[in-house]
Amino acid sequence: MSTNLKTKFEYYKNLTNTNLENFFNELNYPQIISSGMKYSVLNGGKRLRPFLLLATLEMLNIDIKKGIPSACAIELIHSYSLVHDDLPALDNDDLRRGKLTTHKKYGEANGILIGDALLTHAFYLLSEKNLNILSADKIVKIISLTSKYAGINGMIGGQTIDIESENKQIDLPTLQYIHTHKTGKMILLPIEIAIIIANLDDVKSNVLKEYAEIIGLTFQIKDDILDIEGEIDKIGKPIGSDLELNKSTYPSIFGLEKTKEILQEKTKEAKELLLNTFGETSKILIELADFIANRDN
Amino acid sequence: MSTNLKTKFEYYKNLTNTNLENFFNELNYPQIISSGMKYSVLNGGKRLRPFLLLATLEMLNIDIKKGIPSACAIELIHSYSLVHDDLPALDNDDLRRGKLTTHKKYGEANGILIGDALLTHAFYLLSEKNLNILSADKIVKIISLTSKYAGINGMIGGQTIDIESENKQIDLPTLQYIHTHKTGKMILLPIEIAIIIANLDDVKSNVLKEYAEIIGLTFQIKDDILDIEGEIDKIGKPIGSDLELNKSTYPSIFGLEKTKEILQEKTKEAKELLLNTFGETSKILIELADFIANRDN
């Protein structure tokens, strides 16, 4: 990661975490839920989704403060999805980032309720905390989009088909549905929210959405590659867990070398799209595309 | 139930169900989630919460169409809470209204995801389906209120303390917290949404909120009485299940006779409040208060 990108990541991450902490400080009772919400969210994540929202706003010359409640809400939704995914009935994971998963620490019943509370509170932040920052029209658009991308037509849809596809040979369209929905929509969401906040014209909006769709895909492809080639202490989960679940992935369909080629091609495409439309102002988002393709965790 | 009240119940219920079905018809893939969402919601419920919203609007002379998306959204939230409550880690129930619970029919992983999808879709209805019906300002207020009353400071808070209190002697304030939050907030919600839609003045709003809080309580007290005295084929769950879980209830704190007195007093109070402020126009909501106190299931 370039020093420039690293500095930006740190900056947006700290800003997001500070605001998340402030929002959490308003919550007290029941203590096990408020404490579990904090534990699940303030866990040392990179805050990629807030980064996307805030960096896009900055590129478009919009005060990034306007994106803070939405950025935090997206992190609550992302976190709730991890909390529920880790449950025994789903992935049954005991550890996340080297720490006990939420249901392991707070018990399974509370794990379910903490996830529910995070999801619900995301919509509280989107409505209540955007009130004096954005027009009501924009808030309603943002909430509509968020509920669509997080729900049956977005993340939950992708997660469902992902589970259904375990131990099954699936075709490329199914794999692509999983990628675009399970992780893709929640990477598209912060960029689309920035577009709404900035009132961006259609041409520029479409370029940004295409960029977001591509990096959503490269993010997933790189994850699949790391699952084969990564170092366990860097990626924080066992290598080969996809193989173990017999998951179809880009490498299992195209082979590892071809997958790496696709990753580089797609990354190049995303970068060129931005450069042609936004020029030098898109420097940070261009560096991000490279980072996603080349990261080691 | 009076013929008058019965007719109204049927009317609002059919209206709610028709609209729920229409909203569900927009959902297809993944089939197991869309099918599970329908199964969990279209299960023969009384639609008490939509009734409260629509009857209040009608009393206030507001077109009840303005309340339909919100009424449906509340039912999705109510249903998701039942789906998650029934899970093995929580109440571990196999049957609801004589049919398999959602996780028993669709598997536990899908049960969790179906609940998540219902909760998320409620906010989709509140934002997207209210768009051409209510002003954006009102929509944002409704969403903020809904997320508050369904989340850690509302229903989820109450549910958490209810679970924590099993097999424990709890004091009256704790029991009242459970009642006002676990069931109370979601009974208050439809009436407060009607208040927002109708732009009602503070004096009348406060009377309606007080009414809603009282019937939220009497609803719960009556449930506790039915758990002791009800007939199994009418209430659809085993008698004495509270006793079995060693749950503190109004009867366990005050005794059965005193609890019945409280129920009648509170019901009288709710009815007088309405009659004094809204006169004859409040007839249906007054009949509802009686129905809640005297129902046999």
From TrEMBL, chains A, B:
Protein known as: Farnesyl-diphosphate synthase
Any single GO CC term annotated in Swiss-Prot or TrEMBL for this entry: cytoplasm
Biological-process GO terms, alphabetical: terpenoid biosynthetic process
Keywords: Isoprene biosynthesis, Magnesium, Metal-binding, Transferase
Matching Pfam families: polyprenyl_synt
Entry keyword Metal-binding: yes
Gene Ontology terms, MF aspect: metal ion binding; prenyltransferase activity
Record InterPro entries: Isoprenoid_synthase_dom_sf (IPR008949), Polyprenyl_synt (IPR000092), Polyprenyl_synt_CS (IPR033749), Prenyl_diphosphate_synthase (IPR053378)
Recorded family membership: Belongs to the FPP/GGPP synthase family.
